[in-house]
Amino acid sequence: MSFAPFAFDNTYARELEGFYVPWKGAEVPAPRMIRFNRELAADLGLDADALDTEAGAAIFAGHVAPEGASPLAMAYAGHQFGGFSPQLGDGRALLLGEVIDTRGERRDIHLKGSGRTPFSRGGDGKAVLGPVLREYIIGEAMHALGVATTRALAAVATGERILRQDGPAPGAVLARVAASHLRVGTFQYFAARGETGRLRQLADYAIARHYPELAGQPDRYLGLLRAVRDRQAALIAAWMHLGFVHGVMNTDNMTISGETIDYGPCAFIDTYDPAAVFSSIDAQGRYAYGNQPKIAQWNLARLAETLLDLINPDDSEDAVRQASEAINGFPLVYERTWLAGLRLKLGLDGAEEGDRELSEALLAVMENGQADFTRVFRSLSSAASGDMSKTRALFDDPSQIDAWLEGYRARLARDPGSAEDRAAAMNRANPVYIPRNHMVEAALQSAAGGDLAPFERLVGVLADPFTERAGLEVYALGAPTGFGPYTTFCGT
Ligand code: AMP
Ligand code: MG
After folding, report:
1. pLDDT-derived band of residue 327, with 50, 70 and 90 as boundaries?
2. Where are the alpha helices (DSSP H) in 182-314?
3. Which of 72, 285, 303, 359 has fewest C-beta within 10 Å?
4. Chain-centroid distance, C-alpha 3
5. What average pLDDT does range 12-33 have in this prediction?
6. Is there an atom of ligand 1 within 6 Å of 492 CB?
7. Ligand 2 centre and the CA of 253: distance in Å?
8. Which atom of ligand 1 is nearest to the CA of 91?
């Protein structure tokens, strides 16, 4: 009996031969479903009842390839912490295939942790439960927060014990869904080999898939660069608005689609701090919270370099000029998007000259007062309605925020719109619940001990981050004082 739960249509496998290695997942002893995302499955037009099963677990573990799949390991390169690796690739992942979701969008179904591939280098090709559940929690939270992101379709246990730094850990695989897995690093792989024909093929594929309005246009490669720039600017602005630190913004972890990808050592800030770094391997703070826009621009410059031969094959100086112009435009696009988002967070309908200063002044006061970023923003809907007590209480010395609140109230008085509408709109821009580091850690610790209830509860809370609910107060709080500085590790 054949089991065909996916209507695959695998353009990457079909159209981009030479850009990957056809491969199979490793067999594992005991695939078992840990969490299946039924809501996402429905969006993908999948039969949840058929997949939230033992047979589904075997598929998402990479143990069995479903009918119509063309599993493959993608080739890509990348700058990791500034240093270039000409060959990275899917060392522990496979693209299973593509499906068309219920909105008509093409989505990759991808497995992370499915065993060694020709790109594994020294690695074991595996993933372990903690990081898999972490990516599940944070990726799904980001989606609910309105951020462009890959999604988690399923987390499965493999029944293996995998050796990691702290000893053996339960093996797991994450089934991930993405608009595509094209990365800046995919372009770098072929550029580094001087394969201009393949680069053109890749760029045309990326255009057809993500920026179809550019297809066939004579200046489409410059258009692609600008379009990726704009989506990345919007993405990084969204991260900044939520206090999200990706932690490993290597060029292989930057998508062409503009989705957040690879939730490894990422974390959300509690108190506002531009220098916040959580990753154990980011000793220099290259990927610190406040550096993210600059790093995004740097990564986009690496993408630009790969496109020069396509932008103008006959005049490299002209190509450099055009590409530089596009990249130099990043700060302006980013600033504009950032400020628009800040206006939403502050409940400002109109735009005034001083709005940037007002926004920056708030951040400065928060930094000085070691105030909780998420809670301060959420409290502002009350402040806007005349009740300053919530905001004031978030500062060790409440008077620190008084001058700012006075200026804010004066600004609001000049703004059109009703106070009620404003408060409601602000509460749709400023979440109550984010994946707090201490809550994520507690959920993962319990899961490691076999108790998935805290993980399930946390995922449930974060699915609706903007609606304050009775009984969930503890999820809205910052880290307890005893939690200490938080360090994250790469999900290997
Ligand atoms: P990441 O840090 O997850 O973005 O991965 C960077 C590179 O390391 C990619 O080429 C991965 O495929 C590879 N990699 C990470 N972990 C492993 C592993 N356990 N086994 C093999 N390759 C890995
Ligand atoms: Mg990666």
Report:
1. very high
2. 184-192, 196-210, 220-242, 292-311
3. 285
4. 32
5. 98
6. yes
7. 5
8. 12
Q: How far apart are CA 307 and CA 186, in angstroms?
A: 12
Rounded to the nearest angstrom, the distance between the alpha carbon of 263 and the centre of ligand 1 is 12
For residue 369, the one-letter residue type is G
Question: pLDDT by residue (tens digit) across 57-74?
Answer: 999 999 999 999 999 999
Q: What is the pTM of this model?
A: 0.98
Residues forming the active site? 252
Give the confidence band of 42 by pLDDT, cuts at 50, 70, 90. Answer: very high
Q: In the predicted model, is pLDDT for residue 196 greater than 60?
A: yes
Q: What are phi and psi of 272, to 5 degrees?
A: -70, 125
4 versus 12: the higher-pLDDT residue is 12
Q: Where are the domains of the chain?
A: 11-77+93-178, 184-250+280-338, 347-492
Residue 90 alpha carbon to ligand 1 centre in Å: 7
Does the beta carbon of 88 lie inside 6 Å of ligand 1? yes
Q: What is the mean pLDDT of residues 241-262?
A: 98
pLDDT band at 491 (very low <50, low <70, confident <90, very high): low
